[in-house]
Amino acid sequence: MAQIAAAVPAVRTTAQLELAGLAAPIPDAAARPAVGQGSSSNDLGFELGFDHARHGVTPPVAHLSHQSPLLQGWQAGMATFGRRAHKPNRHTRLWLQLRVHAWQRGRSFEDVQLTPNYLQQIAADFCPILRSPLSEQQGSVDRVRDDAGYAAGNLAMMSPGANAAKARHGWASASELARSVAQGPIRSIAGLGPQEWRRVAVLCSFVTELPHEEAAVIPLHVLPPNRLRLFNPIQALQALVTRQLATPGWSARLARLEALLPNEALRADFNRFVLALAPRVLHVGKGALTETHEIRWALEDAWAQPLVQKRWAKFALQLNAAQAEALVQRAAAKRLCPVHVQRHPEPRATEGWALERGGYRAPAH
Predict the structure, then answer these.
(1) Backbone φ/ψ region at 191: left (φ over 0), alpha (ψ -120 to 50), beta
(2) Is the pTM here over 0.70, yes or no?
(3) Do 162 and 189 meet the contact criterion of CB atoms below 8 Å apart?
């Protein structure tokens, strides 16, 4: 698997795609561990309270009872650190809030890679779904893939409203809602219109193992948020090519990328795709885009054009997943990527995602 940082998607190799089918389905309600029960939950609560004290943060009011293991851990931490506690920043506070949220719901939380520094890297100024501004109080960080836990590669920041609407929806269900709302007569569901549901669907598709032929024809209605891992190599190539237009020198870089293609017919189809995409990005932006989010939205909106989708599909369907990933790797090696590429070998690509338990914490024994 390769990860592209800045948009930081991750790409699976062919072998890893074959292993993806081993992930367990979401457990039914009877199989899910009881929230807040068992010694492991108490131990986690105590550790969480101790970390609140370590960072000088008072636990939520709901946990300030003598029966709460979180309170007991906080009291033990206060006795240990006292006034020597670290001064928390906003990302440390958010990290503690996410851990409390996961602990209360019995969700798995991977705390080796998922750190305050990681949360700082995925911070966003605008919601990728609603495109509304996100302040320190408005941003909501949650899992993109609902049957996985809180772990690096499965989180994105968005508005609370978009997060609430997305809850428990994946690629297939969000796509169906987008089609339904677009057909009418209802013009919105859970506060989202057809465009917003399309963005939800594409966001979910990034962390969903799809057949190459299906992933190859998905329009890029939303660019991958920072540090999100992509399970479909063709989408990583799609994001890499699209992002080229966001930085100067894109024409020369795309020409060099075109030269990496194995035959003249494929190079011609790639060139036709670029000639469809680039003018539409410029048209959307009217040549006066300066802000990062405006450029991002222009790139995404260009994918609403049928000609762009048609020409991309014609090109992408001539590749297979292995060829798509190889192109991403070769582009990275030749410094043709406007973003950093990092590989994640299996099983580390989904390490800590708890896919075998549907994203829930292991039950206490």
Answers:
(1) left
(2) yes
(3) no
CA torsion, points 329, 346, 9, 169, in degrees to nearest 10? 150
Beta strands (DSSP E) in the chain are: 2-5, 10-11, 140-143, 155-158, 340-343
User: 142-166 as b/e, with b when 16 or more CB fall inside 10 Å?
Assistant: bbbbbbbbbbbbbbbbbbebbbebb
The strand pair at 10-11 and 340-343 is best described as: unpaired
**Closest residue by Cα to residue 299 from 286, 315, 281:** 281
151 contacts 128 by C-beta, under 8 angstroms: no
Q: Give the pLDDT confidence of 138-160 residue by residue, as tens digits.
A: 778 999 999 999 999 999 999 99
* Pick from 329, 359, 354: nearest CA to 342: 329
Contacts of 66 (CB under 8 A, 6+ apart): none
Model confidence pLDDT, tens digit, residues 222-274: 999 999 999 999 999 999 999 999 888 899 999 999 999 999 999 999 999 99
What residues contact residue 221 under an 8 Å CB cut-off, 6+ apart? 195, 198, 199, 201, 202, 300, 303, 304
Helices 90-105 and 39-54: crossing angle in degrees, nearest 10, is 170
Check pLDDT > 80 for residue 197: yes
